[in-house]
Write a structure and sequence with these properties.
Elements lengths: L2 H10 L4 E4 L4 E4 L5 H11 L9 E2 L3 H7 L5 H11 L4 E6 L7 H4 L4 E5 L4 H10 L3 E2 L19 H4 L4 E2 L11 E4 L6 E4 L4 E6 L6 E6 L4
Parallel strand pairs: 1-7, 3-5, 4-8
Antiparallel strand pairs: 1-2, 3-6, 4-5, 8-9, 10-11
Helix pairs in contact: 1-6
């Protein structure tokens, strides 16, 4: 059994795993396992009021957990920049996402990672996985295997070795509001300005530096 197969089995059994993505190492579990989600929050010392993003393998998987995604979001963000380091914040289906994952809010961040290992794990479990970085809340984000806190590693069921190809957090755009709001600028560089022709904010995304 290879590393990916082992991670998939552990996750399906309700475990918590650390794995690489394109941006950072993440601590993760399956979104539909409430006990695993609760354990992940406890391990990471994450505030229960703070929502976590989901990682999916396809746009269709994202749509299964979100309210209908507008054509504009799909054509201007999802299609050009997924898979990649762009997290899109949208409204979700309340019956599909556990309360802890939602953090009591009305929106949820979702992205498709541009990383073969991460996507193979998602495909293997068949549902979205949680995507918080693999560190205790408020501590240093791990971009390399060596950055992982040994104390955190002791608390999870398995660590998938590997490398993060981007080595920076994802850029986050809230598309539940108009104009779209830049929540965090990360691996993808964003410039926005108010067009004289259109009243809403237009986003220009430049990935040439990555």
């Amino acid at each position: 059994m290879d590393n990916i197969e082992k991670a998939i089995k552990i996750l399906k059994d309700g475990g918590v795993v650390i794995a690489p993505t394109d941006t950072t190492f993440i601590i993760t579990c399956m979104v539909n396992n409430k006990k695993a989600v609760e354990r992940l929050f406890k391990i990471r010392r994450r505030p229960k009021t703070q929502a976590v993003s989901l990682l999916v393998d396809t746009l269709k998987m994202a749509q299964d957990y979100l309210l209908p995604i507008s054509k504009e979001v799909i054509t201007k963000l999802a299609e050009p920049y997924w898979p990649g380091a762009l997290t899109i914040v949208l409204s979700y289906k309340i019956d599909k996402v556990p309360g802890l994952v939602r953090g009591g809010g009305d929106t949820l961040g979702v992205r498709i990672p541009n990383h073969q290992v991460a996507r193979a794990i998602i495909r293997g479990v068949g549902v979205p996985i949680l995507g918080p970085s693999a560190n205790f809340h408020g501590e240093k984000t791990p971009y390399k295997f060596e950055d992982l806190d040994p104390e955190l590693v002791k608390l999870v069921d398995y660590v998938v070795p590997g490398k993060c190809s981007v080595g920076n957090v994802s850029t986050v755009i809230d598309c539940s509001v108009k104009p779209w709001k830049i929540v965090r600028e990360g691996a993808i560089s964003i410039q926005n300005y108010n067009s004289k022709v259109k009243s809403r904010t237009i986003l220009f995304i430049d990935t040439s530096s990555n």
